[in-house]
Each structure stands twice: as structure tokens, then as C-alpha cells.
Amino acid sequence: MSQKPVEWAVSGARVPYPAALAAMEARVDAIARGEAGELVWLLEHDPLYTAGTSANEADLRDRDRFPVFKTGRGGEYTYHGPGQRVAYVMLDLRTRGRDARRFVRDLEEWIIQTLETFNVTGERRCDRIGVWVDRTRPGGPEREDKIAAIGIRLRRWVSFHGIALNVEPDLAHFTGITPCGIDDPRYGVTSLIDLGLPVTMEDADLALKQAFERVFGPVIQAAAPV
């Protein structure tokens, strides 16, 4: 079954989290009713923490640092903020195989192919969600950093929430939480800029778009919901 092009929207200004969540919820309901097409929405937020359905209160190290939002996506605590490209992915899995595990792997593949554009090797880990970069030096201790997070929810087989790719966020902002509940000095957080790559948000957006089309199919430009 051929897929219609997925609408692809980019917000130029930062979007308040509650407004983004409301717009996403409304769009997911419309897709489920057959009243709207699939949508990928790229945006940035002001600094905030979100708590997924598996979040442990002990992992919120600094609860007064930034606003904290409880959200229905899977996963634990994560950070969103300037310099991080958030992509909310609203796809209808009823026409894409109704396979949640495959969908998550496709999201990982999307990120991995995006990183390949910048000669970065992103890797999956069976025991850790997201996409990781091996930063172990020869003869040195094991070191891996997460460069992209994944957190989704399905409603009537329509996906929402999505991925967050670290382009140039303030990595110190991640210290207010235990990111994704992983409290191990071997595992940290990185970004494209932290890896020494002069990547702009526009560069990242283009790479994300091209990789998305290879993994999920064609897109068509659309206006952002907010």
C-alpha cells in the first residue's frame, strides 16, 4: 500500500510545551478519525524537563531549575531546550504494519542515517533507549554518550511525541536530572557541536528530512500547527 507524503513542518520560534502538547494531541485525534494526514513537526522548546510514564522522582535532581511536565510518552526524565531539535512524529501505524517494535527501530534508523550525514556513527544499545556515540579512547575506560533520545506513545495506532537530537544544547542543563534513569559514569550526553562538528540547526533539519524520506517515505512541506 503506497503512502501519501507525510506533512513536514518546522517552527521558527520556540514553542511553549503545553501549546505543543495540545496541538499534537489534537492532530493525533484528527489522524485517527481520518480527518488529517500524517505529520512530522520540528521545533525547539525553552529549557524544561519532561517525565515519562516510567519516571522515578529520585531522578529529578534539581526540581526548581526548570519547569517539569508530566507526559504520557514512554520513558523516564528527559531534557528539552534551545539547540536541541525536537521532532514530534505523528504517523498512522494502521497503514504501516501495526508493529511498535519495528517503528522504534525505524526511528533509531532515521537518527542513525541523519548522523551519518555528518560522519558520526550512531549506535543502538539493547539495554539503553536512544542513539549513542562510542567515545572510548584507545586504552582508556569505556565511554558512551547519548546524542538523541526517543520517547513515543501510541493512541489508536497513531504515534505521537518522538525524538530529540542534540545539535547544540547546553549540556550542563542535563545535570538537573538523571537522563533516562541512567546513573552510570560510563554513559553521558553529547551533541554534534560537542563532537567538534560545526552543524547548524538548518543543517540538521535538512539531514533529518533526507534520512526520514529514506526510512519512512516522501514528505511535503506544511505549516506548523502552532
Q: What is the number of helical segments per DSSP (H or I, 4+ residues)?
A: 3
Number of strands: 12
Strand content: 25-35%
- Uncertain regions spanning at least 5 consecutive residues: none
Helix content: 10-25%
**Topology pattern, helix = H, strand = E:** EHEEEEEHEEEEEHE
Distance separating the two termini: 31 Å
Largest sheet: 9 strands, mixed
Mean pLDDT: 95
* 3D shape: globular
User: What class, by secondary structure content?
Assistant: alpha/beta
As a whole number of angstroms, the C-alpha radius of gyration is: 17 Å
Keywords:
single chain, 226 residues, alpha/beta, 9-stranded mixed sheet, 3-stranded mixed sheet, 21% helix, 29% strand, globular
What is the gist of this entry?
The protein has 226 residues and is of the alpha/beta class. The chain contains three helices and twelve strands. Strands 1, 2, 6, 7, 8, 9, 10, 11 and 12 form a nine-stranded mixed beta sheet that branches. Strands 4-3-5 form a three-stranded mixed beta sheet, with no helix packed on it.
